[in-house]
Structure formats: structure tokens, C-alpha cells
Amino acid sequence: MSRVVFIGLTSLILASCGPADQAPPPESTAPTPASAAPAAPATVNPEGAWTKIRITGLTCGDNCYLQIQPITGGEADEVMCSADRCTPWFESQALPSGVSDKTWEVQMGVVDQLDNEGTVMDDNFPSVIALREAS
């Protein structure tokens, strides 16, 4: 009887051992969706120029994008935003009321555009890096 138990325990122990080069188990924490995570650190416009814009919309998918229109005219653009002020907008995936009624000043730069899995899709994507209400 004791041999049967010993052999059974030995088999159980050996069966639970895997190859020595086996990869570690994946992390137990779920990845944060890119849309909720802040954008990667931005490269600052070397001139640090502030441009007046109007925010016309917000679209979220893997990332959230602001639709902006320069006050002085020119092409509307869809950009990412790495300014702290954008974080709650991205978390709620909506602009608060009144945001599109205001004139804003922005500094533009570039950030890494990441997909939902963290893969860099574009390492030079336009982004608002600083945002303040125009005076």
C-alpha cells in the first residue's frame, strides 16, 4: 500500500513540473485600454508657440482624438491630446458642455500613437501638449 501511495505522489509531483525554459505566466492584471491611459510623453514644439483654436469634437476608439479648428482659419485637424486637462474628457469619452463654445490656446507637439495593445502605430502623431482657456 505504501508503494502505491509513494508512486502516486511521485507521479503527481513529476507531472506538475514543466520544462525549465517554460515562459512565465502572463500578468494577472488586465491591460489599461489606451483610450483611458494618458498619451506617451510629448515632444514640445521648439518655439513653444500658443495657437488659438476652437475644439469642435471628440472621438474615442483605441485612443481619443480632439477635433480642432484654428481661430485664424486654416484646416480643421484631428489630434491627440497629452495635456492633463484632456484626461477627464477621455475617461468619460465626452466633452463637458461649453467646451466647444470657448476659444482655447494650445501648444502643439507630437506623441506616439498606440493601438489598444500598446503597439506604436505612428511615432510622430500631432498632439495638443498644453491647453488653456484663451484670455
Order of helices and strands: HEEEEHEE
CATH class of the domain at 43-133: Mainly Beta
- Write the CATH fold name of the domain at 43-133: OB fold (Dihydrolipoamide Acetyltransferase, E2P)
Give the low-pLDDT segments: 2-26, 28-38, 40-45
Q: In CATH terms, what is the architecture of the domain at 43-133?
A: Beta Barrel
Q: Please, what is the average pLDDT? A: 78
User: So what's the overall shape?
Assistant: globular
The proportion of strand residues reads: 35-45%
Which value, in Å, is the CA radius of gyration? 25 Å
- Biggest beta-sheet profile: 5 strands, mixed, barrel
What is the number of beta strands? 6
Q: Please, what is the oligomeric state?
A: single chain
Which percent bin holds the helix content? Answer: 10-25%
- Output the number of helix runs: 2
Derived structural class:
alpha+beta
Write out the strand line-up for the largest beta sheet, numbering strands in chain order: 2-3-4-6-5
Through-space gap between termini: 88 Å
Overview of this structure, please?
The protein is α+β, with helices and mostly antiparallel strands. The protein is built from 2 helices and 6 strands, in the order αββββαββ. The protein has a domain at 43-133: OB fold (Dihydrolipoamide Acetyltransferase, E2P), CATH 2.40.50. The protein has helices at 2-16, 87-92; strands spanning 43-44, 51-60, 64-70, 77-81, 104-114, 120-133. The chain has a 5-stranded mixed beta barrel. The longest helix is centred in the first third of the chain and has 15 residues, at 2-16. The N and C termini lie far apart (88 Å). Mean pLDDT is 78; it is low at 2-26, 28-38 and 40-45.
